[in-house]
Amino acid sequence: MATLFENKTDRPLADRLRPQTLKEIVGQEHLLAPDAPIGRMLETGKVSSFILWGPPGCGKTTIARLFASIADLYFEPISAVFSGVSELRKIFADAKSRKAMGKRTLLLVDEIHRFNRSQQDGFLPYVEDGTVILVGATTENPSFELNSALLSRCKVFVLKRLEKESLAIILERAEKELGHTLPLTPEAREYLLGLSDGDGRYFINMIEAIEQYTSDEDLLTVEHISKIVQQRMPLYDKDKEGHYNLISALHKSLRGSDPDAGLYWTARMIEGGEDPKYILRRLTRFAVEDVSLADPHALTQAIAAWEAYERLGSPEGELAIAQLVVYLATAPKTISVYKAWGQALRAAKETGSLSPPIHILNAPTKLMGELGYGKDYQYDPETEDGFSGQNYFPEKMGRRCFYRPIERGFEREIKKRLAYWEELRKKKCQKK
Questions:
Q1: Confidence of residue 143 (pLDDT cuts 50, 70, 90)
Q2: What is the rounded average pLDDT for all residues in the chain?
Q3: What are the angstrom distances between the C-alpha of 241 and each of 20, 34, 41, 235, 395?
Q4: Which residues, at least 6 apart from 365, have a Cβ–Cβ distance to it below 8 Å?
Q5: Which of 246, 237, 249 is nearest to 111 (CA)?
Q6: What is the Cα–Cα distance from 79 to 117, expressed in whole angstroms?
Q7: Is 157 helix (H, G, I), strand (E, B) or coil?
Q8: Which of 91, 83, 51, 89 is nearest to 67 (CA)?
Q9: d(CA 249, CA 53)
């Protein structure tokens, strides 16, 4: 709050625009409306601990601060980055004293995911006995970063990244606070709205940078904006949930034969700092799992792209990755081999002690020959049809069919061959 002697314009624009009521928070109506979870909690007075999970600059800290004010709770904000055990002990002791005097405490833990599991366990007794109402703010998936005991005692509320409509409201408020409209061309204004990648705090900082920029031009263009501010780096942590979400999006885009979506998600990962070799490893897996024998050249293309990238490096080698993405997306798909391998593994576990049929065993010693090893074995290339139709499964197991090719791509030809051999097998069995 500004004092009598403080110049309001000396305060950062983000501080001057900080919402003073829940209604002023944009983009989170699904949580804050009267009939939404946080709105209902405040309306009924049944306050409990919760986790605010969302991207940077979406209002997590502001929501916690206003929640404490409305619920008449003492607001105690800390950061998991800078706080230690001794500070937490003092906070809990002070909270107990306030509780004895009839005043409850809302403890906001920013970046709560940075506390380790044992530190998180330390919150449990104080949450359970109501010493504090815990509000954890995190940009990471709580399922991965918070232990189950703490999660079971807290509701999880998911905040959304700010869309252009919400950012436009912030821009309008900023211009009102500044007392004038920013000198932007319509194209530059639209460009500015897209630069922040949904981060409201970063967006306000960009507005402030533009406000401080001096130019002889009447209106600033997109080129001017590009010089004044740097585009926010994509939100992507290659060790956390974003890593798994984006590779899943890429895999499913290729499976759905959408080369454009495949290129987009690949670009997102490259721009986010993902190791291109990791992407190539997953694309090679896709070549043998989802394309497979529908296009036998897919694996060759994957290995070639991998080798090309290793020789060229970035950024030149990234074009080989893009080419592979398009190739795999537009190739015919089959998972016949994938399913057949799974069935064969299960059968091997069930019948792992059965011996091969004796006629396909080699007989390197006289004794083994006398025992019948290799007896009546037929050398397929020398048979009339180039196919003997002999049994190669354990005799007690019986013949099984794992691989069932489909009528797509090169597997159509394989299916014809297998059907032809099956007919020959039946005829030879009938002759016997």
A1: confident
A2: 87
A3: 33, 31, 29, 11, 49
A4: none
A5: 237
A6: 16
A7: strand
A8: 51
A9: 21
